[in-house]
Structures are given as C-alpha cells and as structure tokens.
Design a protein that fits this description.
The structure is a homodimer of 337-residue chains. Chain A has 337 residues and is of the alpha/beta class. The first copy, chain A, has 11 helices and 11 strands. The radius of gyration of chain A is 21 Å and the shape is globular. At the A-B interface, helix 8 and helix 9 of A face helix 8 and helix 9 of B.
C-alpha cells in the first residue's frame, strides 16, 4: 500500500515526519511511502539514513499550509503546498492513504473537495478513537470538524462509526450512543431529539444517550455528537485536569512535602488520562466518509506518532475502510447532506 | 423581606429545608419565612425548636413535584404542590423570593408561567455563580434550563449577567465572554457566530470567546452559553474528575502505599474543585429575568445549603435584582424571544 506523508505542518517539522516514515517502512514490508514536501528539506533528513529506496519516493512541494491559514483559502490558494498536493494525489488515485499533522480545518476542506466523499456521504467527519478506562477503543465522531450538524449527519456518523469499529478494529457488534446532557430520551437540544429518532431506526445497536461523564467508561463503542459539542466536551476534560493541577499547586505554596508528592502523582495520573484521550495512541484521527484513507496525526507529533499513524493508515487502506463506509451508508436512504 | 421556602424536593427532605430556614431566620432580623409544604411534616420538624414565630408561617401544600415529573405536566397538574404554590404566591405578590431544591425543569416552567418575566425578557435563564481559581465569582448562564437558544437569548444572558454581577455582587465592570470551542472569533457554531456579532454591540465589556478550559480561570466574570453547551461543559468537568479517580484507584490495585496517599490527596483536590464549581457555595443558582427572586438550591442540599440560599434570596430581593434585570434590558431593542 502507498501512503503519502504530508511532511509539513507538525511542530517538530520535517525531521519528525521523515524519521517516522522510515520507521514505518522498516516495520512493514508491504508499505510504500511518498514523502510530500520541500524536496531539499526532505533530502537533508534522509541523508545518511538506511532505508529501502525502492519503496520510498519524494513528491516536491512549495509553501506549506500553516495553522494561521483560513481553511478554504489555504486549499484554494496554496495548490503547491504539501497538504494540497498529497490530497490531490490521493484523490487522483496516486496513492492509498494520506497522513498529515497539518491545519485540521484545511485538511477537512481538502478532504471534501480533493479526495471527495463516498456515495451517500456529503461531508467527511473527523473521528477520534480514544481508549476507555476499561482499555477498549471508543470512537467519537465528530470531534470538531463539523460544528453545525443536521440530524442526518449524526445518523451517518453512527453508521460509519459502527462500520469502522467492525472493519478496522474487529469489534463485532459495536454499541452506539448519542452524546447528550442527560440519559433520558427527553434530554438534549432540538438537534439531539431529531437525531435520537433517526438513530432508533438504525440497524446498529443504539443504546440511547450517554453523558459527557460517560465518555471514558467504555459503555458505548461509538459516541456520536456534533463537532461543536464534541470539541467542547474534550476541552472541558482538559480544563478540569488543569483546574486540579492549579489547586494542588496552590496547596504546595501553603503546604509541605506531602503536597509535592501529590503534585507529582497527580501529574502522572493526568498524563495517563490524557494519553487515553489522545487518538495518537491508536494511530491518529480518521476522516470517515472520504473516498481514500486520510489520517490526522497531532500537531505535536513525534517520529513515533508518525510511525503509528503511517502504519495505521496502511492497515486502514488494506482493509478498504472507504469502501466499508460506502457499503454501510448504502443500507440507508438518509444522506448526511 | 419575605422568602417562601419550597420544603419538598431535596434528597434530605423537609427536615433540611425547615432547619435551614430556622438558621436563616436567626441570622437575619429582617427576614420573614413562609414554609411551603405538607403542614404536618413541617410542624413535626418545628416541634421543640426555638424561633421567632412572628416571622414564620406555614403555607399548606399537597403532593409534591418529584424529579420524575415532566416539567410542563408537573406545573399544570400539580397545582397543589409546594413548588407550584410557592411560585404562584410569589407571582401574586405574596412574597419577595422563592427558594427551591426541586425539579429544575419544572422550576423553570413554573418561573416562566407563574412568576413571569420582566419586560424585554421572554424566558428566564438559570445562572450559576461559580468560584474561579483566583477566588473571584464567575457567573455562567445558561446552565441547562434553555437547551435551544437564539442569538438574542445569549445577548440577553450577557446583559442580565453583567447587571447581576454589578448589582448583586458589586463587581464594577464585569468582563463578559462567549463560551466557544476556540478563542478566535471564527470558532464556534452558527449560533455562536450570530451571538458574537450581537455581543460586540453591547455596552458591557465583551472580551470575546473563552474555551471550556478557561471556565475557572476568572478571566471572564460572566460567561454566556446556550444551556446545552453549558450543561455539557459542567458534566465533562465532572467526567474528568471521575476518570482521574478511576485511574488512581487502578494504580492502588497494582501499587502500594504511595498510591493510597495519592488517592486521598486527589480526592481532596477533587472535592475542592467541585466546591468551587458548585453554585451552592454562594447561595444557589438564580433564575435571571423573572419578575421575582427565585433561587435554586441543589437537590443534595443540607440545612446549611438552605440557610445560605435563603439568606442569598433575601439579599437579592433587598437589592431588587428583578428590577435591575428589567433596567438592563430596557437599554436594548433586542428581546430574547
């Protein structure tokens, strides 16, 4: 399988992307890698490295997309950037998957316009697989790509999310839940009420509402939400972690050694929970519904994050996840228009 | 000032409400209390207690509203309940404030229908005052009463929230922020974008977006949000606390004494943060925009919670907060219809 790596966009720059791609290459004999980015920078990173050159190529690119770029403008104007080139190549059949650490908004726009969506899907959704406290994977869609959703979109997230769990992660009969502000069917806003009605009609295992407090319990395997609520929930989790660290720091000011030990312990617990909440642990977030595999790795990605994401992308391409999404959606008349 | 106490609806039942009211009575010489509920139960709680009987009366009531009741049905059918009687009494001028620990949804419906709203306000909002990590009060509106909002409603929350901070809590020039999933003006969903445009036109100090991570930093004095997002955020904070407790508990299973000490410490930190996030610390949540003072005390209220809430309600009535809300809204043409 041919994975195109967008080498720009991560905080650690081109070296992390290239090193991660090389690690992935040596980890999978079936993998072919296209390093997309400024040729000279990539070549400098490859210099002196040992790798199977028959399975590696470079696709030259110009000025990269940055996080300050407005998504639509970036995709329209920076046609020469590594992100736009990588997505265009995928859309034109020049590869099986793309891995990028770049601007999430631009990536979403690029996926929808350049890679396009499978039949029955109008807009791709960014899904994140987190690790529950039980150790099981939980897919959350949407995580912030689509902030304004219609009920039909949440239904499509449920269909694609459960197909993904089955086909990519071998979860036999994934439980699907709707993220709401209460367990009862009556809870939630107008969008949730309408989505609930649709979800009840799905052939997947819909278990009703779960609350933000249930995000990590592993009770549901797929949690659907509009991107605004999904993003707000994750950011609030982060906020609580920060608040607790702040309270214990203040305790150290007024307290003694006990607090200092507690600070270190709390820091470790926080690190563990953050790791579980991070999609990078399982190889990046995925754009479901696109006609090709597109994996988003974190902006703070290291070579190890790239390695995981590239191998994950190859595996998803081998399992033909885009096709699985199309087959899942074909069962329903709804379109997430 | 005459404060009507809805004696039913709290987990600890009538005794906590009555004891709290008596504590408040002995704490404020200007306070008059009406205990609304089943006369015999209230009398049993008063038996043998020492109090100024000239400032205490009982308003008999029938079957109470429960948390299982559908809000509109409860208000329409249980006309004899302590909650409906208390709100009706307030609406008819038979008192200056109501304190209730009952069904939040029913309370909101009751406030809108029986107490009614001031001019310029179509629906009351439930505002919660939390304590920031700096120790300053932060008002959050809406906290879950109005799950579907129009931009004009969020604007009204901002107007009323800043008037409340000024008139009830003596904060001179409160900073107002919009809760969103990013700092930049472009972040947020369609509701937030439209609300942002309106908020920029207000005469209050609008500082832009804050994220769920900023909820407790004290950067904003008033945070406006629709009730769905507000409720989700608070529940996610709770979820992160639970997740961290769960991870450390698992650590104890596999670890030693250090983890156990850490567990106790984490528990204490969590308790401190929860206390800061609880509106009960400052005397309950308040329904802004109602024509009378209505304070919601927590379902788990103790006598001490009731004492604080009753004294808070009296103070808010003395400061004529409903009038302040009306005056605030009179400056604008928008109505939160």
């Amino acid at each position: 399988m041919k994975v195109i790596v967008d080498c720009h966009g991560a905080d650690l720059g081109v070296p992390a992307a290239v090193e991660g791609a090389l690690l992935a290459l040596s980890g999978s004999p079936t993998l072919e890698v296209v390093l997309c980015g400024r040729r000279e920078e990539i070549k400098a990173c490859l210099d002196g490295k040992n790798y199977d050159s028959a399975r590696l190529s470079i696709a030259d690119a110009g000025e990269p997309v940055t996080n300050d770029d407005t998504p639509t403008v970036a995709v329209r104007r920076k046609k020469d950037s590594s992100m736009v080139r990588a997505l265009t190549m995928l859309g034109e059949g020049g590869g099986d998957a793309v891995v990028s650490a770049g601007n999430t908004g631009a990536l979403l726009v690029g996926v929808n316009i350049l890679v396009k969506c499978v039949k029955g899907v109008k807009r791709a959704t960014m899904a994140s697989v987190v690790t529950s406290l039980k150790g099981t994977p939980t897919l959350i869609a949407d995580m912030g790509a689509n902030v304004d959703c219609k009920p039909e979109m949440l239904f499509a997230f449920a269909v694609m999310g459960s197909e993904y769990m089955r086909r990519a992660l071998d979860v036999d009969s994934p439980k699907v839940a709707l993220l709401s502000n209460g367990r009862e069917k009556e809870k939630g806003n107008a969008l949730n009420h309408a989505a609930y009605e649709l979800l009840e009609k799905g052939t997947f295992d819909f278990i009703g509402n779960v609350e933000p407090t249930d995000l990590m319990t592993g009770e549901a395997d797929v949690i659907v939400t509009d991107g605004f609520a999904g993003n707000m929930t994750i950011k609030a989790y982060e906020g609580m972690g920060k608040a607790m660290m702040s309270v214990i720091k203040e305790g150290i000011m007024s307290g003694g050694v006990k607090s200092k030990l507690g600070y270190l312990l709390l820091k470790d617990v926080l690190r563990q929970v953050k790791k579980k909440l991070s999609a990078d642990e399982v190889g990046g977030a995925v754009f479901l519904g696109a006609r090709g595999v597109v994996v988003k790795t974190h902006g703070a990605s290291t070579a190890e994050s790239y390695r995981k994401s590239v191998l994950n992308a190859e595996e998803l391409a081998k399992r033909n996840i885009p096709k699985a999404m199309e087959e899942g959606m074909a069962k329903y008349e709804y379109s997430n228009d």
